[in-house]
Specification:
This protein is α+β, with helices and mostly antiparallel strands and 184 residues long. 19% of the residues lie in helices and 38% in strands.
Length: 184
């Protein structure tokens, strides 16, 4: 039995879950609404304030789908109730970020600024903490979309190992390398 799949998903007090025809699940909460088409082989039930996902057999495909859809549903319930957040840090001399009219503007050492338009459902804020470093906060209800947007922004200028310049996650550790030594 799947260790993840057999766990019931607790439904928070301010969240409504509707299981429609053909396993179409819609989750509504204070932050928004998410929907997911669950594999028709799995069966879903709402019991005592929890969602229970069960599989018909122990086939490899059913075992894989069991844990996957349980995790996706859990992420949806948490997302519409609390939301998800990722923080990025811009490090480097002259590197900066700003938001104007919902568009993220980045100066990352290129000859031109980079403009990033976030997808629907994602909000981006920028604030300077500790004087010199700039922090970008990405928030939304869809965990996958928040992570994808954060990874896309990071990929514009990933941190380099010599000076540590670039865009990194706030909790990311960048292993530093020693530079060249001068020959005399």
């Amino acid at each position: 039995m799947s260790r993840v799949g057999k766990l019931p998903i607790p439904i928070k007090a301010n969240v409504q879950v509707e299981i429609g025809s053909n396993n179409n699940v819609q989750v509504k909460g204070p932050k928004g609404t998410l929907s997911l088409q669950v594999d028709p082989d799995l069966s879903l039930a709402v019991e005592d304030g929890t969602i229970v996902v069960t599989r018909p057999t122990d086939q490899k495909r059913h075992r894989a789908m069991h844990g996957l859809y349980r995790s996706l549903l859990d992420n949806m319930v948490i997302g519409v109730a609390d939301g998800y957040k990722k923080e990025l840090e811009v490090i480097g001399v002259g590197f900066r970020a700003g938001v104007e009219n919902g568009v993220l503007e980045l100066a990352l050492g290129f000859s031109h600024p980079i403009y990033f338009l976030p997808p629907d459902g994602i909000s981006i804020t920028v604030d300077a903490k500790r004087g010199k470093n700039t922090f970008i906060t990405i928030e939304g209800i869809d965990k996958q979309l928040v992570g994808q947007v954060a990874a896309k922004i990071r990929s514009l200028r990933p941190p380099e190992p010599y000076k540590g310049k670039g865009v990194r996650y706030s909790d990311e550790y960048v292993r530093r390398k020693a530079g060249k030594t001068a020959a005399r």
